[in-house]
Structures are given as C-alpha cells and as structure tokens.
Amino acid sequence: MGVCESVRRTPGTLAHVEPCDWEEARRRAAHFRRQLDPIAATPEEAVGSVLAHPLVALADIPAYDTALHDGWAIAGPGPWRIRDARKRDIFAGLEYHEATTHQLLLDGQASPVTHGEALGSGVTGVISANRCTVDGELLKLVTSGRTPSSYLEPGTGIRPRGSDAGYGTRLLDAGERVTPAVAALSASAGHDAIDIFPMPSIGLIRIGDAILDRGIPRSGLARDAVSPALPGWISGLHARCQPARWVTTGDAELIDVIDDVISDVVITAGPESGAAVRRVLGGMRADVMVDGVTCQPGGSMLLAQLQDGRPLIHCGDAPADAIAALLTLLSPIVAALTGITDPAQRSRMNNAVFGDRARTTLIPVQHVGDRNQAVEIVRPGGPGGLFALARATGLAVVPVGGARSNEPVTVLPMP
Questions:
Q1: Residue 53: which H helix or E strand, with range?
Q2: Cα gap 180→170, rounded to integer Å
Q3: Contact 265, 313 (CB under 8 A)
Q4: CA 153 to chain centre
Q5: Nearest Cα to 235, choosing from 330, 332, 311, 314?
Q6: pLDDT of amino acid 167
Q7: What is the dihedral of CA 309, 315, 319, 325, to 10 degrees?
C-alpha cells in the first residue's frame, strides 16, 4: 500500500493500516520530502544547523602573510638592527584590498612578532626565537653549529596570504552540518551571515497524569523516565525541542494542544496514551502512515500526517520505546526536512545474535575495534534495559532470525 493512500473510514475514526516491518516504516517516514525554507544566520547562531548553499571564501585565508611562530620579522640579509615597530606599522594596510607601498621594514631591520601575527610589507622572513641571538641593538641568526649567519631563505617562517584558500574557493558543500569549527571557518572566510536550513522545531506533548515527575515510585505509580530523556535525544538528532506541553483532561484538550503547537513535527508520549492519540487523530482526519511496527521495542509507534502537513509521531511511554520511535521515524524525517544524510550506518556484529522469529530487534550496542567498525551487545540488559541504553553508542537493527558473527547490520547512532 502506498504512503498516505486513501482508506475507507467513518468520521472520527483513524484509517486502519496494518503494522509494517521496520524497513518499511523508515521508508514511509522518509517520504516527508518537504524541505524547510533556508534562512540567514550569524555563524554562532548557525551551529547545529545545515548549510543550505556551499560555503565560499569571501577573502583569502589567511588574509595576510602571517608569522608561523614567535620570533623576529626580518628584512633582507643580516645582521639586523632591531626596530621596535608600533603595532599599526606591522600591517600592510588597514583594509583588505588597500594597496600600499609603505616599507614597514627596511633592509637590515628586524621587529618582534608573535605566532599568527600579520606581517607588513618588506618582511622577507621570520626567525624563531631559538635560532637567533641579540647583541645590543643587533639581531644575529645562529646556525646549527651555533655560529652567526647573515642569510635566511626568503619566505622562511611565513604563512603566505591565501595559502589555505584563495578568494572564491568552495570551502564546504551544501548539506554539511554547521559545527563550531565550521562557524569559525565561515567567520575567517569573511561571512557575517550564512544561509542554513534551521534545525526542525519539535513540539513535545506529554499525555496523562498517572505518573510521578519527582521522588521515588510510590502508591503504584512509576517515575516518569521518558520526559528527562526526550529533549536530549531530540537535540542529539539535530532538532530543536520545545518545552513539553502536558495534557491531562481528555481528548478535547489534546486536540487543542496539537492545533496550538507551532512546530515542524509533533511528538506525543505518555503512559497508556496510544488509544487517546488514535481517537484524536481520527477526529482530526489525519492520514495514518505507520500504525505499529513489527519490531521490539517500539512496536506500538505511530506516524500520521496532520491536515496542515506536519508529521505526528507517537512514541509510547517507556524510554526504550521512545528511542526506538525517534531513531526509526524522527531521524529520517529530520533528514528529509534539512537535506542531510541519514546517519544510519553498517557495522559488523562481533558475536552471533539470536533474533525474534517474527520481529526485528533493536539492541543496544557499543562500537569496538579499529575505527569502530564493529559492534557488540551491551550487557547486562535486554532491548528495553535502561542500564544498557545508558552505555550504548547505538542500536543495532537485528533482522528476523538474528545475525551471524561478523555479519553487517544497520546501526543507528545513539543521539
């Protein structure tokens, strides 16, 4: 059956869709091909988002000849008379494209410089501090035999202007994640703003009050272990989680909150809330895309498309169910919205794994071996164990029937 294919239903009921396998669920989630509109952001604001266009150098990098180390800038052959140049004198010009013939260092002169400092015109080399001696007002180069010398190969100790990248060079392609280092690169390339696909906004709705938000379990109620994890997991999938909205009074309140949340994706979670979500989505005439997945944990996950086009994910009420739903459904949706590559990867299982006869199993694993090319099961703790999830670096997708030792399997990196 195709995604969002029309199905007969009565008013107020959710169209019936048979549970699908894990691979099909991810394919249906990936059908949200609507990309977010690009926006302009400062380099620091852009961290965590995705480049909408290639990053191009607006200036040579570096913009000036610079010193490779602390020492002395010299002009011509030595020995050199030390000149205590003012900082303003060191630069070839105050503006990047300003032409100047001002001879900052004359032949036979030297001036102290620090690593990375821009060099002015007339500088023919930089001598590191441990390769020279100061004799009164004279600077003398010392060779390996500790004898004075007067010649330094022109260009020694200088990082030439544009040696990393010239003006107009493509530095990064569109679709690259903006890390703090990318933000620094864009600033050094002259950008005050860069075009990005922003991190998708996630509206989080928690349902029900038969759960404790503090203290130890008591009176037959369990402690809420999902709410503390969801914002961090969502952030780790490169989306922006809004503060959770709580619904406790019934279907009408849930409908109002879903309509009121301004976000790119809506996520619902809560103890025994699946039936309420399905009733509400039927009343809102949402298009069901995934209603149950033949996997464990997370078999009750649901994906629907609201009338305004937004996806809604219901991820259950246990941490293992929640992370299974996020990695199965939210991860490919975020990739579709921002144009990034799905982070799922292939790795070898270090040991044979027995699988379920009818369902895919998502098992917490840790990366091991050279370059983390293999994974092994985190023990103790089964698929739903919080202790295993707390130490896992990924979830291995073990197919029906299991996986042999050294067999490649899909691994979903833990956010």
A1: none
A2: 19
A3: yes
A4: 45
A5: 330
A6: 93
A7: -70
Tokens of 368: 């091991």
Check residue 20 and report its DSSP letter. Answer: B
Question: Which residues, given as ranges, of the chain have pLDDT below 70?
Answer: 1-15, 33, 84-103, 144-150, 381-384
Parallel, antiparallel or unpaired: strands 132-135 and 408-413:
unpaired
Task: Give strand pairing partners of 398.
Answer: 361
Residue 203 contacts by C-beta under 8 Å, 6 or more apart in sequence?
242, 245, 261, 262, 263, 265, 266, 267
Output the pLDDT for position 113: 87
Distance CA 221, CA 198 (A): 39
Classify the phi-psi angles of 184: left when phi > 0, otherwise alpha if psi is within -120 to 50, otherwise beta.
Answer: alpha
| Residues 404/405/410/415 CA torsion (nearest 10 deg) | 130
pTM of the model: 0.77
In three state form, how does the secondary structure of 346-403 look? Answer: EEEECCCEECCCCCEEEEEEEEECHHHCEEEECCCCCCCCHHHHHHCCEEEEECCCEE
Amino acid (1-letter code) at residue 322: A
CA–CA gap between residue 17 and residue 325 (Å, rounded): 17
Strand partners, 17: none
Q: What is the pLDDT of residue 84?
A: 64
> What is the predicted pLDDT for the residue at 12?
55
Point out which residues pair with 206 in neighbouring strands: 246, 269
Compute the residue count for the chain: 415
pLDDT digits (tens, 9 = 90+) for 198-252: 999 999 999 887 777 778 878 777 777 888 899 999 999 999 999 999 888 788 9
